[in-house]
């Protein structure tokens, strides 16, 4: 019984210390900056929320893509110009901290464009690097 209680206390302590309101808000701020940049037609600004390395992983309907530049190129091809980008909204469902420097985000996205309204879901892995939260994995459908 004592061992079980110790395990529960340790698990609770890691959960409490892993997630802070400040870090959660910082992640939500990254997503809001991305949304704002997107709605201005600024894909490069949107991309500032991602880690700028070849290890960035984006998984979409065409499968996995590695690298910041390749992800940017794909966005530009798939969403040409402001009209192609439309007006983006997010619905954040959860932000869970896996440890003090890694977080999992589940959300929905919705684009309103002149002729259609595509929508779907995303899962993101954020990592705190040099004090900044960046997306290191994006799986969007």
UniProtKB/TrEMBL annotation:
InterPro entries: DUF4440 (IPR027843), NTF2-like_dom_sf (IPR032710). It comes from the Bacteria. Keywords: Signal. Residues 27-135 form the DUF4440 domain. The keyword Ubl conjugation does not apply. Pfam families: DUF4440. The keyword Nucleus does not apply. Residues 1-18 form the signal peptide. This is Nuclear transport factor 2 family protein. It comes from Pedobacter chinensis. The lineage of its organism: Bacteria, Pseudomonadati, Bacteroidota, Sphingobacteriia, Sphingobacteriales.
């Amino acid at each position: 019984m004592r061992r079980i209680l110790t395990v529960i206390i340790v698990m609770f302590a890691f959960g409490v210390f892993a997630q802070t309101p400040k870090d959660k808000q910082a992640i939500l701020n990254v997503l809001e900056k991305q949304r704002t940049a997107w709605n201005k037609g600024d894909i490069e600004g949107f991309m500032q929320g991602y880690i700028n390395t070849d290890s960035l992983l984006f998984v979409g309907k065409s499968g996995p893509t590695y690298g910041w530049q390749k992800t940017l190129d794909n966005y530009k091809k798939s969403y040409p110009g402001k009209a192609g980008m439309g007006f983006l909204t997010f619905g954040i469902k959860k932000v869970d901290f896996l440890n003090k420097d890694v977080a999992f985000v589940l959300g929905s996205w919705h684009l309103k464009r002149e002729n259609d309204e595509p929508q779907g879901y995303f899962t993101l892995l954020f990592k705190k690097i040099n004090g900044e939260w960046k997306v290191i994995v994006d799986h969007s459908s």
